[in-house]
């Protein structure tokens, strides 16, 4: 007759619940998996499926009651780690959206905005176009599978323990936040440069011929030049976007290592 003690049962539950919490944290924030249009039932089902695959290979977890204060502390730690890892890859997507916002504002598309259900805020049409293009590159290059692979490896880089985590991971996330603005400016720089030259030429034309209606001819010209530059730059954006996503995936591992438990 097979007998199972309460301590063994608690260990089995903990070895599944704690990895599941970290996985849920990543899937709730990471692009594609954490999209607002994906039903919560699908996210939870995928997290449970991944936990069933990953949990058997997770290093030995502390023999604690999951419902005790120490067990709940570990649960909260795993959620924070998962959210930080998912936020790292989400930041690089925010960088391309920032590039679209800068481009749209420079083109004169400041009023061409609509509600984005993903961020629950206003978003320009150019920003959404670039974000969708980045998402297609993200899927077609199988980088979403690399995110899941990094998530599985995180349990070896940062095993589940009852020790208090250091705050190094939070510093990594904060420093990575500045990448939104730098990546946005770098990706939109060719288009901004062309539009800057166009606006300068329009300014000289206005001084040379004051009778011209600059508002009547300025907006069509800047919008046209903007679309021409977007079409010219798009074929060359694939490699920078892939490198940016890989940078975010590497940041996931760095954040995991930075959460070194305090002795």
UniProtKB/TrEMBL annotation:
Q: Which GO terms are recorded in the biological process aspect for this UniProt protein? A: bacterial-type flagellum assembly; protein targeting
Q: What GO cellular component entries does it have? A: bacterial-type flagellum basal body; plasma membrane
The main location class comes to membrane
Q: Does the keyword Ligase apply?
A: no
Question: Which UniProt keywords are present, listed alphabetically?
Answer: Bacterial flagellum, Cell membrane, Cell projection, Cilium, Flagellum, Membrane, Transmembrane, Transmembrane helix
Transmembrane stretches, start-end: 12-34, 46-64, 70-93, 129-152, 180-202, 214-237
Q: Where in the cell is it found?
A: Cell membrane; Bacterial flagellum basal body
Question: How far does the signal peptide extend, from start to end residue?
Answer: none
Q: Which domain of life, per UniProt?
A: Bacteria
Q: How does it sit in the membrane?
A: Multi-pass membrane protein
Q: Does the keyword Cytoplasm apply?
A: no
PANTHER family recorded for this chain?
Answer: FLAGELLAR BIOSYNTHETIC PROTEIN FLIR
Task: Give the protein's function.
Answer: Role in flagellar biosynthesis.
Q: Which family does it belong to?
A: Belongs to the FliR/MopE/SpaR family.
UniProt-recorded name of the protein: Flagellar biosynthetic protein FliR
Native source species: Oxalicibacterium solurbis
